[in-house]
Every structure is written in C-alpha cells, then in structure tokens.
C-alpha cells in the first residue's frame, strides 16, 4: 500500500513574468478570451529562456499558462466564495469556482500564442489573456484540441458567455485616445472589450458613479447606465 506524507510542502521556480496592460485587478476580464485585443508578453527567465525550451511550441495556436495569484495570495482562502457570475450573493464552494482566493493561489489560463520573440531574451506573445502585470508563471503547456475540447461538457452556472454591454465614447475621450495612444487602434478595441464585460462589482449599480481602470500607463474613466458603458476620459497616469 502506498504511503503518503499529508504534510508535504512544495516549492516551484518562477519560469517567467507577465508584462501586461492590466496594472490592477479591477477591470481584468474575468476569463481568458473575453478581451481578444489584449496582448501580453511572457518573459522567460534564466535558465528557462534557452531556445531549446520552446522548440516546436510555435506549431501550437494556444497554450495553457499556470501562474500564481500573487496580488491576492496574502488574503488567504475561504471554503465558500461568491462568484460575480451569480450576482455576488450566491455562495458556492471554492473548488466549484475560479476564485483567486484558493488554498494554493494557483491559476490556469488558456491563451492564444501569437508568436515567439527571440530578441533581448526569449518571450512569448499572448493574446486574449486575463493576467495582471507582474504575474509569476510556473509552467507552459501546449493546448491539444482533440483531448481538451469537450463540446458536450456541462458548464454549471457559467454555461455560456456572459451578457455584454454596449459601449460609447465621449468626444473628449475619443480625441484623447487618438492623441495619447500609439497606435490608438490597439487601445480602443481593448477598452471597449474590457468595459463590455461590466467590470464593476455585482453589488454596485449607481449610474451616476464614475470608475477608473489603469491600462498600460493610462487611466480610463467611465460610467455605466442603461446597459451601456460610456468612456468619459483618458489621461496619462502620473501626469494629473
């Protein structure tokens, strides 16, 4: 009979760091692929930045990223959590959720592999990721569709994509996007995709309230009313 040490502890190396436009937890899409315009860079660290480590990876269109919820790890965990998808009121077990407050603060995201950069080290360019800037990455695995795609699987209380909001721009915000972003064609769709997911906490529904999201080095001010997110202002962080 096998004997297990139930008090085992494990330690893992950080193989890479995420460089992301998402500078704070608020506003990050709650699942990968909800904001396909998001472009992130996974910088591999020595000795995992050797070209041999990614040989053959460019044959795959998507990869699994195993990472640490480093910003929320110190808050600990709870057996019951309140998923935003259920309005923030209904409780489910932590293992029936993707909450970041877990016994071990580990996350898993399926993201598009846009490309591999070999200049100034070794990095993976990822699309549609939901990862905070500075996130430590523990592992990378290729996504294998015939094994891991199960169209007949049940999705529980998240069976289907969430409803989305319409978005509109104030004239001031549109001018600021063109003047500040280089190029603005990258910033505009990402803002719209993020706000369409309604990043507000489920218990907040004040149409007069304004919110701010830090994205790259910009602060995006917006409000939500009548199922529409209005982008009010874009300013550079630290200049106001």
Describe this structure as you would to a colleague:
The structure is a single chain. This protein is globular. The strands form three sheets. It has a six-stranded antiparallel β-barrel with strand order 1-2-7-6-3-8. The protein is mostly beta strands and 240 residues long. It folds into two domains: 16-148, Elongation Factor Tu (Ef-tu), domain 3; 166-236, RelE-like (YaeB-like fold), CATH 3.30.2310. It has helices at 145-148, 171-180, 184-196; strands spanning 16-19, 39-44, 62-68, 80-81, 92-93, 106-117, 123-127, 136-142, 166-169, 211-215, 218-225, 228-236. A hairpin with a 5-residue loop joins strand 6 (106-117) and strand 7 (123-127).
Short description:
This protein is 11% helix and 30% strand.
Query: How many β strands by DSSP?
Result: 12
Let me know the largest β-sheet.
Answer: 6 strands, antiparallel, barrel
Give the end-to-end Cα distance, rounded to a whole number of Å: 66 Å
Specify the CATH architecture of the largest domain.
Beta Barrel
Reading off the top of the CATH hierarchy, the class of the largest domain is best stated as Mainly Beta
Q: Uncertain runs with pLDDT below 50, 5 residues or more?
A: none
- How large is the share of residues in beta strands? 25-35%
| Strand and helix order | EEEEEEEEHEHHEEE
Q: Give the number of helices.
A: 3
Helix content: 10-25%
The CATH topology of the largest domain corresponds to Elongation Factor Tu (Ef-tu), domain 3
Strands ordered across the widest β-sheet: 1-2-7-6-3-8
Computed Rg: 19 Å
Structural class: mainly beta
Give the CATH superfamily of the largest domain.
Answer: YaeB-like
Overall tally of structural domains: 2
Mean pLDDT: 90
Rough outline: globular
